[in-house]
Amino acid sequence: MFGLDKKDTTLLIVVTALVVLAPFILNPFPADSALAQFNAGYPDLMQRFVIFGIFAIGFNLLFGLTGYLSFGHAAFLGVGSYAAVWMFKLLSYNVVPAIVLAVIVAGLFSVLIGYVSLRRSGIYFSILTLAFAQMSYNLAYSVLTPITNGETGLQVYSNDPQILKGDGPDVTHLFGLEMGSAYTLDIGPWSFVFSAGYYFCAIFMLVAFYLAIRIFRSPFGLMLRAVKSNQQRMAYTGLNTRPYTLAAFVISGMYAGLAGGLMAAMDPLAGAERMQWTASGEVVLMTILGGAGTLIGPVLGAGFIKYFENIFSKINDSVLHQWFSFMPDGMEDFMVFIVHPFIGKGWHLTLGILFMLVVIFLPGGLVEGGQRIAAWLRGRGKKPAGGSGDPEHHPKPAPHVAE
Amino acid sequence: MDAILLQILNGLDKGSAYAMIALGLTLIFGTLGVVNFAHGALFMIGAFCAVTLNRILNLSYTVVDETQKDFLGNPLKVDVPYVKGIFGDAFGNAIIDWSVPLAILFSIPIMLAVGYAMERGLIKHFYKRPHADQILVTFGLAIVMQEIVKYFFGANPIPTPAPDALKGSIDFGVLVGLDVNAVVYPAWRFVYFCFAALVIGGVFAFLQFTTFGMVVRAGMADRETVGLLGINIDRRFTIMFGIAAAVAGLAGVMYAPINSPNYHMGMDFLVLSFVVVVVGGMGSLPGAVAAGFLLGILESFASMNEVKALLPGIDQIIIYLVAIIILLTRPRGLMGRKGVMED
Known about the structure:
The structure holds two protein chains of two kinds. Chain A has helices at residues 6-20, 22-25, 43-66, 74-90, 95-117, 122-141, 145-148, 196-217, 219-229, 231-236, 242-266, 277-290, 297-314, 317-323, 329-339, 347-361, 365-379, and strands at residues 154-155, 173-174, 177-178, 182-187, 190-195, 269-270. Chain A is mainly alpha-helical. A two-stranded antiparallel ribbon of chain A has the order 1-6. Chain A has a two-stranded antiparallel ribbon with strand order 2-3. Chain A has a two-stranded antiparallel sheet with strand order 4-5. Chain B is mainly α. Chain B has a single domain (2-58, 103-329), classed as ABC transporter involved in vitamin B12 uptake, BtuC (Orthogonal Bundle), CATH 1.10.3470. Chain B has a two-stranded antiparallel ribbon. The longest helix of chain B has 31 residues, at 2-32. The chains are: A mainly alpha, B mainly alpha. Chain A binds chain B through residues 69, 116, 119-124, 127-128, 130-132, 134-135, 138-139, 141-144, 277-278, 281, 284-285, 288, 341, 346, 348-349, 351-353, 355-356, 359-360, 363, 399-401, 403, and chain B through 35, 122, 125, 129-133, 135-137, 139-144, 146-148, 150-151, 267, 271, 274-275, 278, 282, 312-313, 316-317, 320-321, 323-324, 327-328, 331, 341, 343.
């Protein structure tokens, strides 16, 4: 179907089903139960899942396929956001022109940066992209204030021209369908929210995912993998790899621009902090945590990080006391004391530890973890086919970074 | 003339910090071949060593002073630091006043231990892994260290004063024959620069003039051969990791009075230090030091009003701009060795 083989079609269908049914899946607990804070089915968080999913899919097209580790991808996301908000300011709150312009501007910006940065590889490429992104960030904060509105962040004011607005709504909308509108379905004690904005982003994410599959399976994708495994040999065969890597860089920059545009479409403001290197680091974390070079990995990683960011940071001491209330008093206080540093404001600590554990024990990320569990369930002690018994015919896998 | 001298001096203190962190990074990279993203966190831990010692010295007990009365006429309760109780008033005060320089002694064993534990506990298992994995795991470690410090010390910057004697400024212009008050420079920053020069010189002398240093240099050039000669090079490299951590820590200790330590100060320095290392040339120790001072001084020149009027915003981007130009024109950085991390 859609030019995919059977396995990929299944994957696409599963992902589609998960995304469409997300409001149900992410809300497994009744609304007023003690476990309701584990529910992630509210529009704001679900939108972030899919938006960062798009961002990570795009990043993975560059890093997973070519092995070029960019540390400045957030710059494209930030540029996309600024472009989208400018469209809101100049035309109207309709999201279509905003997103189109966000993708185009991010694409042009990434042509510029990619053309220069891709002259080097390895850690030099990482530092070059980092330097460009930090320059954009610093400039957005200082000299470019007329365009970016500096520290306040770019937002829409009532005296902006908005020439196409007419009597359209005062919030972001798709030809009249407001992004903030939502329909709440109550079944017994459960309550499910279906948000227009979420499904709007979800459609983009599914398209982005489909395109990523096509790129992974195309001759172009194969060429990128060849660049990752041995760029020198590609050069010796007389092939100029630069256009291929540049194309991958630009595609991945456009994905980031799309994510930035969607972010602005959900909430019409844009700030420079979206371009900071920590934001670029976050998408690297997402991709690695999920599994670089795999199709579903980045999406999983994005969901994982955003989920824990929201859920862990919401748990506080009184919630902990509730959980451990079955224990004797002294024990309860002790448990709360032990867990306290890892929750609430300390969720970064949890994330850091989780992340280290994944890098140490599961270099392939969550996807590899899933595969190992699946293999263990299937095999139960049987040796996996094509084990490492024969080094001659199973050479060591290519490193993540072009070296 | 005096304006130029002042900008050079202004650049020196930041440049010293860059140079010391970049030196440590290069030591680790040159010996173990590991890209250590947790190095900024080591700098931060050094700064917090100064904070901790300051707090320890200020631990107090309360005594009731019969000679003084509060506004209700009751005897006044006075907090007396233990140090004063033990050493007497004058010497106790001096110790508290000089807590930051004393923290140098306090931090060296701590940083050596932290570095040793880090290398043996974590980094050792990452020698054979790709650079990306090393970057990622040390990045995770940096987050963990930051969050632990944040848990104990809070998120706000903690002012840590320099000794009273070094708080003022020195009239540098008089020393070089310029007018009085032409070049006034904070004393502590000058101390910082001298200290950095001492540390950097010490590291180079250690590598150059001791047998241990000779073996380490040999190991950097050809690890395998040194190993074949029956020398346990791994152990020495571990010690070098500890020394690199101590250099970063010392940079942090002395930086505490310049910039009140907070938990993410390391990250702010880390990115710039990596730029410094790459500009200097991966694996080149003199390159790292030279690039550190160079970029620090360039940064302070770019923040002059005259330059800013000519090129608005240049002060924000100068370091990155220089890095991009150097990376594109000189592939190995300023003094990079052939064959280290080349394309």
